[in-house]
């Protein structure tokens, strides 16, 4: 156990998050996502797990240590609902609240069509699968930077 680190974050996840650079992306996925097959195609090359928690809880833990890219674009994407791309599912609404809290301001997620999401996921640094069982609990995060003090 470590002080000031969310116990949901295991050593493998912390290692991957620390190894990522500015602009690298990571996938946080639900249990229905083809996580293992996609993860094998990422830079990290193996699946990471935060089991037995929702996507929202995993996102809360991840965002406690991961800076989001705050450039000109939104830094969190969500998998769009097929046939209803503007629909926000309950799991997506929960994650949106966590993103806003972590950023200290409204930070709207952008939609990514389902099959385009799969392709972007293959280009990610890593995939972290969660215990989320609700559909469309899949997100793409872009890592930002931590500025120097002063």
TrEMBL record:
UniProt keyword Cell membrane, yes or no: no
Q: What is its EC number?
A: 5.1.3.29
Keywords attached to this Swiss-Prot or TrEMBL record, sorted alphabetically, are: Isomerase, Plasmid
Q: Does the keyword Acetylation apply?
A: no
A GO molecular-function descriptor: L-fucose mutarotase activity
Q: Which Gene3D superfamilies match?
A: RbsD-like domain
Q: Which Pfam families match?
A: RbsD_FucU (PF05025)
Q: What InterPro entries does this protein map onto?
A: RbsD-like_sf (IPR023750), RbsD/FucU_mutarotase (IPR050443), RbsD_FucU (IPR007721)
Broad EC category? isomerase
Q: Which reaction does it catalyse?
A: alpha-L-fucose = beta-L-fucose; beta-D-ribopyranose = beta-D-ribofuranose
What name has this protein been given in UniProt?
L-fucose mutarotase
Protein's organism:
Nitratireductor thuwali
The organism's taxonomic lineage, starting at the top:
Bacteria, Pseudomonadati, Pseudomonadota, Alphaproteobacteria, Hyphomicrobiales
């Amino acid at each position: 156990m470590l002080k000031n680190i969310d116990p949901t974050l295991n050593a493998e996840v912390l290692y991957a998050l620390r190894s990522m650079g500015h602009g690298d992306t990571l996938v946080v996925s639900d249990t229905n996502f083809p996580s293992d097959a996609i993860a094998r195609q990422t830079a990290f090359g193996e699946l990471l797990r935060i089991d037995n928690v929702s996507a929202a809880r995993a996102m809360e833990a991840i965002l406690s240590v991961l800076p989001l890219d705050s450039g000109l674009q939104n830094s969190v994407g969500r998998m769009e609902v097929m046939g209803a791309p503007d629909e926000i599912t309950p799991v997506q609404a929960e994650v949106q609240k966590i993103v806003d809290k972590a950023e200290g301001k409204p930070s709207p997620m952008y939609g990514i069509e389902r099959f385009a999401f799969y392709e972007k996921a293959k280009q990610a640094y890593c995939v972290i699968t969660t215990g989320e069982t609700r559909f469309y609990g899949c997100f793409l995060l872009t890592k930002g930077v931590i500025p120097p003090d002063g």
